[in-house]
Amino acid sequence: MFFELIQTSERSKARLGCIHTAHGDVHTPVFMPVGTNATVKGISVRDLREMSAEIILANTYHLYLRPGTKQIFSAGGVQKFMGWNGPMLTDSGGFQVWSLKQFRKISDEGVHFQSHLDGSRHLFTPESVMLAEREIGADIIMAFDECTPYPSTFEEAETSLRYTLNWTRRAKKWLDENPPILGYPQYFFGIVQGGMHLELRKKSIEALIKIAPDGYAMGGLSVGEPAELMYRIADFCTDYLPKNRARYVMGVGTPWNLLELISRGVDMCDCILPAKHAQDGLAYTSRGVLRYKNECFASDFDLPLDPDCDCYCCKNYSRAYLRHLFKTKEPLGWTLSAIHNLHFYLHLMQEVRAKLLSNDFEKWAEEEKQILAESCKK
Amino acid sequence: MFFELIQTSERSKARLGCIHTAHGDVHTPVFMPVGTNATVKGISVRDLREMSAEIILANTYHLYLRPGTKQIFSAGGVQKFMGWNGPMLTDSGGFQVWSLKQFRKISDEGVHFQSHLDGSRHLFTPESVMLAEREIGADIIMAFDECTPYPSTFEEAETSLRYTLNWTRRAKKWLDENPPILGYPQYFFGIVQGGMHLELRKKSIEALIKIAPDGYAMGGLSVGEPAELMYRIADFCTDYLPKNRARYVMGVGTPWNLLELISRGVDMCDCILPAKHAQDGLAYTSRGVLRYKNECFASDFDLPLDPDCDCYCCKNYSRAYLRHLFKTKEPLGWTLSAIHNLHFYLHLMQEVRAKLLSNDFEKWAEEEKQILAESCKK
Which pLDDT score is estimated for B103? Predict the structure, then answer.
């Protein structure tokens, strides 16, 4: 069994589960650190282990361009290539190709695009992307999809969805005919699209269920819509998604976004925010959002970013020092605060799972959301 | 006793010694990782400990500008500020002020200069710099000197030397009248100048000996002169420097430079090269210089930078992966290769000390210099 549903809350749709892969187990709800180029920016695998990361996300588009997926296959798969011997997931590159500002042409066949690196021309088809994901060798591989922009009319979203469903069918067929090449199973996730149109989201799920992937992602969220709308779409989708399959919301979000989504039945999330905000001088803490670059923290020589945190950064460095590293643009500052932020997300997920197990997730989550979103002052 | 001379080789001027500080012992010959802004670029204190770093160098000019030396004093000194509870040395900022491309005016009083950050105007005098170094609180503090450019006429070098000697006298006087303020001793090093003129170097040493600092640095080296000339000047100086004091050559160099200087009686070195070359895609290895960014290493999935190295980078990551990180400009690549290069330097010093102890340094160093300077091919 790939996904094991352990428990569903009696007070919300929140679920406790476990994903079993050849590289280890992943306990859900889970947050996946983003390692686009087969590296979580500035973070060593030792640090990832220490913060109890269970699964890392990499990106097919980026790895296809550099170093090339054949190269990663030669290394024995992305886990061996990056020295991370735990579970991994690859996004298909659908979102990246969709986001390209340069040339990009979508047809039934797939997407013709130009590399953002050197302008070279490439074609992604569902089949070629599945081959790339086989070569990269992540434990979970995402379907090649067409992300629906926000806002979109019903017709636009429907056309976009047609591509995604057609491509997902072809991807599944190709995978069935072309088994894994690295000696261990790869689980295939379909991606629910349909924009903000409930009817299309439902249609998308019904069609995907027939294709029978191993898990389901909700795509096209966090693309500019209000948070409340995102929650509503996720909430709607989880009502229709099979209970015995993992549900993954892609590219979301803040700690309080995660708590909202989890209470709506979401099992997996990923986001670049912890690393990005670290670079911006912002730390998530148990007392709220701390803008450690601010003057008022310059003399906090004995206070870590979060006194209640036991990450490597908080155990060894002060706010005053972190602020100094930020001001002097020292690379260690980014690494340390990214370690803290990622640890914060992963620790939050540990708490979520403990609260689910003891059946008091909802009340706790309600309070926690308020605290976490507040601005932490001096 | 601050500096303990343990042994001098019978076959060269190489020495084995130990520097005793309130923050621990430093075994010489020693290489000091550079931590200009109170951080060794991209490297955590855990990594510094793991690579057996014994002493870190920071810079008064940089810390005076950011975060300010009063701020570091409030933190309890630079060791507490940066979370490194080992020995430290601060350079005086003389070299940095001398290197400023913007406004800078030297007089008997000191140096008026403009900050490279915001153009603000400042005055460094020997007294103000000693106060700054008292506030920063390193275990070893350098005199404020005037670096002599290369090439310089005898007259130019003599004028420059006059500033340095005058300032060193005033610095020593100020220190004698103003004891340490952080509760532990700080040892004062004078800096030998005189350009490439042997007579002036001798005069510099004779004058410094009268001032009686705790140790001696050789400044104004590695400023564009040929390596052979640098070796000759250092060789000349160590003939005249007191045997019972530590000798430090500032800002040098490659691994083979270090072996040359050590055989000429030098005890301490520092250099930015290991970090800088890491950023340039170049690793020092036991088999020579490895340009790991080169295509020929792209498929070295099972080979670390140096198969004989036991640093964190070599124990966990391959050349192929390091090359990928370099090509994708990922910050982890710089950190990992800097860890390797620094570890390489520190490990080389460990070997030097072991060879000195067993009385076979010279033959080993002769062979090693050849190997290390070679280009490591596929």
Answer: 85
Measured from the Cβ of residue A203, the count of other Cβ atoms closer than 10 Å reads 18
Query: Considering CB atoms only, which of A45, A66, A301 is closest to B328?
Result: A66
A47 is catalytic: no
Domains: count for chain B: 2
Check B41 against A67: CB less than 8 A apart. Answer: no
| Same-domain pairing of B178 and B162 | yes
Identify the H or E element spanning A111. strand A111-114
- A230 with A347, same domain: the answer is no
Burial category of B275 from C-beta neighbours within 10 Å (exposed 0-12, middle 13-18, buried 19 and up): buried
Q: What's the CATH number where A58 sits? A: 3.20.20.105
Rg (CA), chain A: 20
Beta-carbon count within 10 A of A347 CB? 19
Known binding-site positions of B for Zn(2+)? 309, 311, 314, 340
**Shared-domain flag, residues B253 and B308:** no
Whether B91 is catalytic is yes
Q: What is the pLDDT of residue A378?
A: 73
pLDDT in tens, A228-243: 999 999 999 999 999 9
Tell me which of A139, A270, A300, A306 is the catalytic residue.
A270
Domain span at residue A228 reads: 3-271
What pTM value is reported for the model? 0.97
First vs last C-alpha separation in chain A? 49
How far is the C-alpha of A198 from the C-alpha of A3, rounded, in Å? 26
Lookup result for tokens 């001088």: A281
Q: Report pLDDT digits (tens) over A189-235.
A: 999 999 999 999 999 999 999 999 999 999 999 999 999 999 999 99
Nearest to B39 among A71, A316, A332 (CB): A332
